[in-house]
């Protein structure tokens, strides 16, 4: 695959000097509309052999583009903060906002390449790792991230000469990757060829950059970036609205419709069970093995179903230092400038901690679907994206508990009116709550589809009748304790 790239690719100084203004014009001509209109963000992955001049090429890009909207992120072995979280966390944390461009050294491919070259993983593990990377990149591309991947190549002799020059100058030794060093030239080149064959997709293509001649190398990089950004600017697609929940006058029955809302619990029984399960939860959270896992708890449900009350009963026995509660509302401008899962990845707890989400990433397939904030294709693909996100958490050893708290339409109306009549609860009722009631059937269908498509063995949904709040709170406590006991 690299045969043509390894042939002498030369550009004399005069030709490069004449070409340079055109390259700068093309880059800025593509970048400035992106900065102004913010239709997408851009990720430039820079990879390949040590000594190929990746840093020099990127430095030239900084000189040619508007550097105020360029971000450079370099990754080595994960440090303590990253080791406490799933592998993709640090890349999600650093995603650029729409309008910005991030240049990535040492991307999510690094650990896979290193482990493959040093025989730390077998064929099956290598294939699974690449498949997971592709799902990650496809999700970003679907969320208006332009992904361009560059593999810098050098003939073996040229790499040897370049590395000797770097060593003599003692320049940037800390950025060299052991897997891409001269001693691994052949294996690294083979791995690069395979990587490009298997992971170069229309939504995240690889570009092979001949790097023996610096001028040719930098011109090739600039042309690829400018051309791809220009094509992306010209390729906008309109969004479509969600399909109606009622077809031919018949409402679809879903998992939500099967929840038995008649369950009740008397006050005396409730107090006894609450004390029992809160003590059990406290004891479980103190176990030494708790330091090896993180707990992510998701609370969704009808408006006024008692999500906040249930969360308060769970956190009461916990040490405040080991949990955080995240009430999720409409995304901020900062959050809307990034893929929708970004704001949840950055809230992933470290091992030994709990994260409570009062509403969550599932708003993508609920509010955004019903209200038309997400296009039909967007919320349909979100089911798989969410399943993949939760698989990342559980593969890392985390526990994911998801609760759907259900009440009847009649009970919701009673609670809404009670909130309006109680001064310290009036802040809980908004115009949006009343508007959402008008779409009760649509939300019921969306919630049913959500449970059907995202209740997985590793992250199952627990539907809870919340018509009686005492019953709901005990069911939540009991389920969390059971999941912890199973894991710990």
Automatic annotation (TrEMBL):
SUPFAM superfamilies linked: P-loop containing nucleoside triphosphate hydrolases
Residues annotated as domain Polyphosphate kinase-2-related: 12-232, 265-486
Reactions that this protein is recorded to catalyse: [phosphate](n) + ATP = [phosphate](n+1) + ADP
Pfam families membership: PPK2 (PF03976)
Keywords: ATP synthesis
Highest taxon in the source lineage: Bacteria
The keyword Transmembrane belongs to this UniProt entry's keyword annotation: no
PANTHER family xref list: POLYPHOSPHATE:AMP PHOSPHOTRANSFERASE, POLYPHOSPHATE:AMP PHOSPHOTRANSFERASE-RELATED
The protein's name: Polyphosphate:AMP phosphotransferase
Species in which this protein is naturally found: Roseibium salinum
